[in-house]
Amino acid sequence: xxxxPTDPRDAAEAAFKPxxxxxxxxxxxxxxxxxxxxxxxxxxxxxxLHFQEDGAGWQDRINAAxxxxxxxxGGFGGDERSIPVDQLSSANDDGAG
Length: 97
Prior knowledge:
By secondary structure, this protein is mainly α.
């Protein structure tokens, strides 16, 4: 076991020696087109039950319904009817989130 320095200057240098540099932050993962992202979504119980009635695959059916809605309402194409991402905010939800 190492002994503590008895010289005050050595003690001060030991107390204030530079820390080892932190590892650089990991690079952000690049979004893969078509990849899915896990989210938490609040749905009315009757809506959820409707999609779960047919069993497994209910999340895929919700995704397909949302995709169909967005496509039929001018989304995904830069259409003036689509909502810009910066305007998607809590003003568009019920505040329960």
